Amino acid sequence: MNASNTHITEGIEDDFASFGDITASATRVTPGNALRPEDIAVAGEGPASDAVAEYALQLGDDALILAQRLSWWISRAPEIEEDVALGNIALDQLGHARSFLIYAGKRFGKTEDELAYWREEDEFRSCHLVEQPNGDFAVTIVRQLLVAVFQNLLYTELTRSSDETIAAICAKAVKEVDYHRDHAIQWTLRLGRGTEESARRMRVALADLWPYVGELFVDEQLHDDVGTAGARPSTLRAAWDEEIAAVLADAGLDVPQVPDAMARGRHGEHSEHLGYLLAEMQVLARKHPGASW
Amino acid sequence: MAQQAVDTQLWEIAAQVTDPEIPVLSIEDLGILREVRREGGDAVVVTITPTYSGCPAMGTIQVDLERAFAAHGYTARVELVLTPAWSTDWMTESGQAKLEAYGIAPPTGKGHAGRVTLGLAVKCPRCHSLDTKELSRFGSTSCKALYQCRECLEPFDYFKVLS
């Protein structure tokens, strides 16, 4: 790099310096878009404990990674209504992610943007299922079915959380997830009972994604630590199995018999896919720290 | 001015702010305006609740509220609350009428707990036919679904029920 380039680079950094340091939220510093989700909190305070904040982080990461995956479909879905539908679902998930991450960040002294853009791969707490690639449309629909039924059960349970903010976020989110669940079920029926090819692809997608289901229902130490603020994942399994089995039977599809994968996303151990996803999601924020538009 | 008159005036300032996506609807019509209170002097706190978690209109509404109060010499701070969660039951009757006049079918019926498998007919806001079909449950914004009228063949937005 020659001297003049260095100078230009420094100039740009000076420009960005006026927006505050990289710890500032792009949302806060953006003129004309002054939504302050940082202010969302029912109790006005941060989480009562590190465990609750960690739990909120987990919920937020699942939603954030799923939102990033789904938004890829905008302009690529098989019909324009699906561009809109998957875009809307991604937006809902992003909204949930923001609420959870803002809440978690209050305890850790970080903004939602810091948590989304400045954490390394092993600091994410998302499950492996949401990071699985979009594949063909059947893969995306099966992933949506598995996740939406899970989120619907989980958020319903969490509307009774002893933590007021988690209960409030989930009371809001569950109404939206109900639509996501409906959307996935309708497509599962359509593809399962569609052509031989659509049914074949659904079977392949089910077999490929099923190994990542087990992780959703693993009880961890964290669930003991959060107590009544959270929900024990294992207690949701029976209802999930029952609902999924009914939908698949309706669609003429079988519940796959495949073993669980070694998935420890809750401990920051992820598949190779997450790194690529984060690279794309984080590149702009890291290339232009503090930038806003 | 008497205390009550001032409070009514403050509410009316807030209530004139409209939804950027549906400009015929005020935030009062939508039912997202929860509270307006004075914090002493010219400081005002306005409480609103989002329709959908990811709704980008909330940012614009916040700025519009601050501007509306500034025009009357007040400094407004906007608070977002999530609870109790908004539902389409919060929309006023006059809001529903304005929606229909604008060409968006208002939510049919009230929200409900649990699943209702019987679909209620959505009336075409143009020709008022009940012979309409859902093209997509997801429309141009989170709160709308896309319908088409089988009678006049026009597509239209439906403000879907959120219970």
Automatic annotation (TrEMBL), chain A:
<dbReference type="InterPro" id="IPR052703">
    <property type="entry name" value="Aromatic_CoA_ox/epox"/>
</dbReference>
<dbReference type="GO" id="GO:0005829">
    <property type="term" value="C:cytosol"/>
</dbReference>
<dbReference type="InterPro" id="IPR009078">
    <property type="entry name" value="Ferritin-like_SF"/>
</dbReference>
<protein>
    <submittedName>
        <fullName>Ring-1,2-phenylacetyl-CoA epoxidase subunit PaaC</fullName>
    </submittedName>
</protein>
<dbReference type="InterPro" id="IPR007814">
    <property type="entry name" value="PaaA_PaaC"/>
</dbReference>
<dbReference type="InterPro" id="IPR012347">
    <property type="entry name" value="Ferritin-like"/>
</dbReference>
<dbReference type="InterPro" id="IPR011882">
    <property type="entry name" value="PaaC"/>
</dbReference>
<dbReference type="Pfam" id="PF05138">
    <property type="entry name" value="PaaA_PaaC"/>
</dbReference>
<dbReference type="GO" id="GO:0010124">
    <property type="term" value="P:phenylacetate catabolic process"/>
</dbReference>
From TrEMBL, chain B:
<dbReference type="InterPro" id="IPR034904">
    <property type="entry name" value="FSCA_dom_sf"/>
</dbReference>
<feature type="domain" description="PaaD zinc beta ribbon">
    <location>
        <begin position="120"/>
        <end position="160"/>
    </location>
</feature>
<dbReference type="InterPro" id="IPR002744">
    <property type="entry name" value="MIP18-like"/>
</dbReference>
<dbReference type="Pfam" id="PF01883">
    <property type="entry name" value="FeS_assembly_P"/>
</dbReference>
<feature type="domain" description="MIP18 family-like">
    <location>
        <begin position="15"/>
        <end position="70"/>
    </location>
</feature>
<dbReference type="InterPro" id="IPR011883">
    <property type="entry name" value="PaaD-like"/>
</dbReference>
<dbReference type="Pfam" id="PF23451">
    <property type="entry name" value="Zn_ribbon_PaaD"/>
</dbReference>
<dbReference type="InterPro" id="IPR056572">
    <property type="entry name" value="Zn_ribbon_PaaD"/>
</dbReference>
<dbReference type="InterPro" id="IPR052339">
    <property type="entry name" value="Fe-S_Maturation_MIP18"/>
</dbReference>
<protein>
    <submittedName>
        <fullName>Ring-1,2-phenylacetyl-CoA epoxidase subunit PaaD</fullName>
    </submittedName>
</protein>
